[in-house]
Amino acid sequence: MTGTHPPDDGAERALVARASAGDRQAFRTLVERFERDVAATVVAMLGPGAAVDDVVQEVFIRFYEALPQFRGEARVSTYLKRIAINRSLDELRKRKRMLARFLSRDDASASVPEPGVEGDDEVERRERRALVHRAIGSLPPKHRAVVVLRLIEGYSTEETAEILGVAYGTVLSRLNRARARLKTVLKPYLENPPSEAPRREPDSEMEP
Amino acid sequence: MKHEDTEQMLRRLEGRMTPEEAERWDRRVAASPELRAQRDEWRALQRALRTTVREDSEEALRPFFADRLMRRLRPPAAARTEAFATSLAAFFRPVALAGLLIIAMLVGYNVSSYAYEAEPSTTEAVLGLPPLTVATAFDAAYDPAYETLPEKP
After folding, report:
1. Complex ipTM
2. Same domain for B94 and B39
């Protein structure tokens, strides 16, 4: 889930070792442990839609194929995030090529399933989600990756820089530029936040 | 906004500061309407993004994700190579054993049944070679049953 990073315990390393030795059940346990975490990253990068399931599968397949080379220097979650971001960037490049004909991530409202009968809250929620995905989709892919890891997933600036293979200052620079863009697109939402405040993130600060 | 301020702002929002750092930062924010506005903006932005992604990721994967994934997986390259080597070994071990056995039997047969009167070498005895030269081997009149060329009338 966003903002949470499972601890790299001995059990996790043991699971990786068993999976590397060909134990499929151990790999399945790893999948079940991290699938939602990886899905959150891919959803943040691509927006909701059928492609998310496929990309998450590809992430785990890449991880499985890379197991013999995985030496455990990074936590499994961090390693998976790196693959998820790279696969999502590949998917965005593919979409860009096909944009005119088929897919448009920017039109996030098309990806959100149309409900039957909705109450006002549900309509508001759906509109807010569409707006947020449109805002994220308006960012250049590299800026989007920074926003996803640093702002949504809650990785530190150093960790984000390491995962993306960029300098510390680059992360902050991209983050500030992304913020300006997000602020513009999300203006209607930020100026009129929902009447009922969303749940608070557990790792957020207490109000000073 | 300065990079350093952005970093401090996010660390404060995420509760990563020590109490002393937080106190210093809060004093600075309290004295600056601009920083206060930016703090509220970052907080609202982060909350909006996290809430949306959390809600959407809950229904992002189709049912039985792990089952479907495991069906797609092939063994890793190293395991495939090892499995191939193991199956090759399993196939060739009995073949090699049978080959060695046949060779031993042939050697035994050759040594025990060597019937040429001329003094054979060890190699000739083991391999069962007739006492031939290249010239006699290509001589059409040579008959191995007589061991030597038949006498010309």
Report:
1. 0.77
2. no
